[in-house]
Amino acid sequence: MKPDGFRNLGVRLARVTVNLALVVALAGCADFAVPNLTPAEVSESTAPTELQSSVAESLPSSTVVVQLEGSDDSAAAETDAQQQAAESPPSTVAASGPAPETTEEWRQALAASGLELPGGGVEVFPGRRLVANYGSPATRLLGVLGERSFDGNAADLLSLAEQYEVAVPVGSEPAPVLPSLEIIVSVATAEAGGDGDYSKYLAKYRVRRWVDAAAEAGVFVILDLQPGRTDFVTQAKWFEEFLRQPHVGLALDPEWRIGPDEVHLRRIGSVEAAEVNAVVDYLVDLVHQEVLPQKILVLHQFKRSMLPDRELIRTPPELAVVVHVDGQGPLGSKYGTWDDMLGQPTGAEQTLWWGWKNFYDEDTPVATPDQVNQVTPLPVLVTYQ
What we know:
Mean pLDDT: 81
Strand order of the largest sheet: 2-3-5-6-7-8-9-10
Number of domains: 2
Helix content: 25-40%
CATH class of the largest domain: Alpha Beta
Number of strands: 10
Order of helices and strands: HEHHHEHEEHEHHEHEEHEHE
CATH architecture of the largest domain: Alpha-Beta Barrel
Low-confidence stretches: 1-15, 21-28, 35-82, 85-95
């Protein structure tokens, strides 16, 4: 480990400990529930101040595991049934005739359909870059996205997009920068929950509101999964109605993928290529069934052990696979994490794109667009948490 590696690991563990402890503030919020329920919205406001205070007071420096109190899921489900009755899911673009079975058939069907991505075209990259806010619309505690309304996020991201377009390094191909949202739709929890997975799902109706608003505004959406003990495909299928839409992609967060006998924070999670490839196959099937443009798949990583056999992950033309480097701390440490992740072996037939994350609280200072654009290759996705 590099000399500053222990310090960076300490910062990272402190952050994930705080993040998981903050989930305690969501325990009484019915926006999160076990996956066989779709919970009700209790309020448009974020977690009460008194809950935030109680969490902060319960975090001694030695904290390793926190307990998550259960919520009244049955009452939540009953209220949500009323909500769902008033809101029908959005329709997706169904393909006429049999679904394409091969990449070439998909390309031909897509060309005939005329369906395009936000900003035009049928391939996510190259030709555009994305800048995104990260978090949950249910609470401000999990990232900047939850601190703002949809319109507030859009305004913030449009300003950032302009800065990244201006800051393109000399010699790099200029490309439009489009606003995006990375929404945490399953959140790692300190308590097992009714299904024993140590993960809770965001209410679908709330996801739908943001996905629909993004479609109208021409904004990309990336659904972020923190699955705990269950697998990524199982959680992805829970949100399939959204993934069948052309502007919605998926992000896998291996940091929060743990084994059947593990709990969060005892080690940093990981996922093997076989499970990621199951997600790849699932998304490719959706792309074929709906004759969708290329779909983005984000893989979060800040340690090689999180994706130990990354070189075996398939990257078919139907997907734009992005390794999102989540380094944090001083800029030099972030550059070091970037170089380390790029240095991990890559498969001979892999096509990988690269992303960068800025942390408003943990980075000292937060990297400017000019500083982000100094890395090579140029990040196609930059997120803010």
